[in-house]
Amino acid sequence: MMKFADKKVFISGGATGIGEAAALLFAQQGAIVTIFDRDIENGERCLQRILNEGGRGIFISGNLIYPDEVEKAVEESLNAFGGIDILINNAGVESPYSVHEMPVEEWDRVMAVNLRGMYLMAKAVIPIMKKSGGGAIVNTASISGLLGWPVSAAYCVSKGGVIQLTKQMAIDYAQDNIRVNCIAPGTTLTPLIERIFQQEPEPEKAKQQISQMHPLGRFAQPEEIAQAILFLASEDASFITGAVLPVDGGYTAK
Fold this sequence. Notes:
Layout: E1 8-12, H1 17-28, E2 32-37, H2 40-52, E3 56-61, H3 67-81, E4 86-89, H4 104-132, E5 135-140, H5 153-173, E6 178-185, H6 191-198, H7 203-212, H8 222-233, E7 244-247
Parallel strand pairs: 1-2, 1-4, 2-3, 4-5, 5-6, 6-7
Helix pairs in contact: 1-2, 1-8, 3-4, 4-5
Family: Belongs to the short-chain dehydrogenases/reductases (SDR) family.
EC number: 1.1.1.385
Enzyme class: oxidoreductase
């Protein structure tokens, strides 16, 4: 049985990495998927994979730091499918700076994507969910929102904000039958992380060191994080809201 048959799922940052893996899994479970991303090439590629497997969905290009583009994308998805049952707030960026080295513009960029973008997406989608009688939101945070991580000041702060926004929204919208949860992945082998490692003087050595920091001794695959997203969005998690689920190979248990 398909757990998400005919559910309308909107995924920000759905073109690559965790978002792409989630889009494919939702589609395989019968969902109708809207992929929203500024990466047109990979967004269209992800959609084509869904369609090739017999799934349903659309790709909408846009940048979630701009309210008008968010509102336009949500409206287009609503017009196409008649509703939004599940929002996966996944888009995010990294930033390799400590506080004293970070340009103010870089701080603002990270906050605009990682935190303000989640607010804008939720602001646009929640009225639709309220009108239809409920829904589920899953935000992508990070273990960096639960603990410190070297040379990642804005990233840590933004992901900590995602966690608190999740808890606050869970309280506000419980009465509307809208559940709000977030995942906190450990290091996951997405294209973004691969690019970061390639900037190191010894990429393979850096990868080995970071992977061994996780008690399971390896990185996560995007599909493993996506499975956790699907769980929190599903009826199997019907009594879970305001939760932060680490999917981190034991990192935060140390």
